[in-house]
Amino acid sequence: MLNFSLHTPTRIVFGQGEVDRAGDVIKEFGKKVLIVTGRSSTKKTGVLDRVVRSLQKAGVASFVFDRVEPNPRAQTVDEAGRLAREEHCDLVLGLGGGSAMDAAKAIATVAVSTRPIREYIRGNSTGLWQQLLPIQEALPIVTIPTLAATGSEANGGAVITNWETKEKAGINGPALFPKVAILDPELTYTVPANYTADGAVDIFTHLYEGYVTGDEHANVQDEITEALMRNAVLFAKPAIDDPQNYEARAHLLWTSTLALVGIANAGRGGSFPVHAMEHTLSAHYDISHGRGLAILTPAYFATVIKQDRPQRLARLGRRVFDVICKDDEQAAQAAIEAMVRWFKEIGTYDTLKNVGVKRSDLEMMAQETVRIGGLGQGTLAATHPLSEQEVRAIYEAVYE
Ligand code: NZQ
Ligand code: ZN
């Protein structure tokens, strides 16, 4: 097991109806909150009103910023950061999916620093990843997820896109950990089938990325990861078939939080190359993050992991998908097939062509992925450093 330092400071409040405690939870952090949310779902479902009512009851004033787009943009963040300052907000509440929560974290940052968020983004417009600034200061952040996917609710990262340069990359730092995350699984009842499935694949990917690339002497982390992957697989279909299945929604939501809160990957290291490849796709084509991961994963497994670490893939197959082959090579292949069957069953199996990607962009996107995700190394970290050509080959393999 590798050395590690783990700090997971977010208080979690979990359960049915807990959203109505938002006011009591938030009043601890100030008198006026900027509610950061998406453009429509929280209004349609009534959850925004419910939160505002709970705040009013607790004597907390609120100001709503409801213009966060999926794959949130730097320009939107800067605008909302200005509003937070003008409105003298004491804290920021991210209410919605990963996009709203990530935007809330970024807004909390620029509200304090007054600097544009692009200056903090890895792969910022100068292309100099070295300029990534760890974020030490931000307004206090509270999160209320309405979609089980990113784990943003309880981690110290956010992903923002500079829409002018089409650069999508992470920001992180100690100040971005939410003070409290209120996880009310009922808020996810209204998530449509496609986003439920894409979210489950995002959870699964947060788990397998470190598992297939990281140190192999971290058995407790591996077994935690396997349990979480199994639960994502187990509960995605029931949540799609019966959107108000509380146990399925509760398990997906808690699994999403645990997957990226730091525990599964601590002491194992590893890298997130499929995320880097996907971020380029959603930066250029504005597609759903989880869908992009579902498109890329089969080719990544087949061309990289099956060659470099078939025994890891075999173990994943046996522990998560009940593959029973004794031979590791065969079990690795069976793992890929079982995963693809799961993607098809939940309706997230797809191709780049089908989501509108132009074949003529693949070379440019491979370059971008290595430039931004490669953090200045000229390759993308995985089980071996992936070259631009290898990244491009993965894009080609899943094109149609
Ligand atoms: O935009 P609104 O109107 O809110 O609708 C959203 C959006 O259209 C809708 N939705 C959310 N909750 C709903 C709902 N619809 C009905 N009922 C509900 N309860 O779902 C759509 C997708 O929402 P979005 O927030 O974009 O999805 P997701 O949670 O997958 O977040 C994706 C973003 O998070 C980043 C991704 O790159 C992407 O930008 N990530 C953040 C991470 C982190 N901070 O740790 C890690 C991830 O790997 C990921 O990169
Ligand atoms: Zn992800």
Describe this structure in words.
This protein is of the alpha/beta class and 400 residues long. It folds into two domains: 11-188, Rossmann fold (3-Layer(aba) Sandwich), CATH 3.40.50.1970; 197-397, Dehydroquinate synthase-like, alpha domain (Up-down Bundle), CATH 1.20.1090. It has 14 helices and eight strands. The protein has helices spanning 22-26, 41-44, 47-57, 74-86, 98-113, 193-213, 219-241, 246-259, 273-285, 289-308, 310-321, 328-346, 362-373, 388-397; strands at 11-14, 32-38, 61-68, 91-96, 141-145, 157-162, 167-172, 180-183. The strands form two sheets. It has a six-stranded parallel β-sheet, with helices on both faces. It has a two-stranded antiparallel ribbon with strand order 6-7. Helix 9 (273-285) packs antiparallel against helix 10 (289-308) and helix 13 (362-373) packs across helix 14. The longest helix is centred in the middle third of the chain and has 23 residues, at 219-241. The radius of gyration is 20 Å and the shape is globular. The two termini are 40 Å apart. The mean pLDDT is 95. The structure holds 5,6-dihydroxy-NADP and zinc ion. Zinc ion binds next to helix 6.
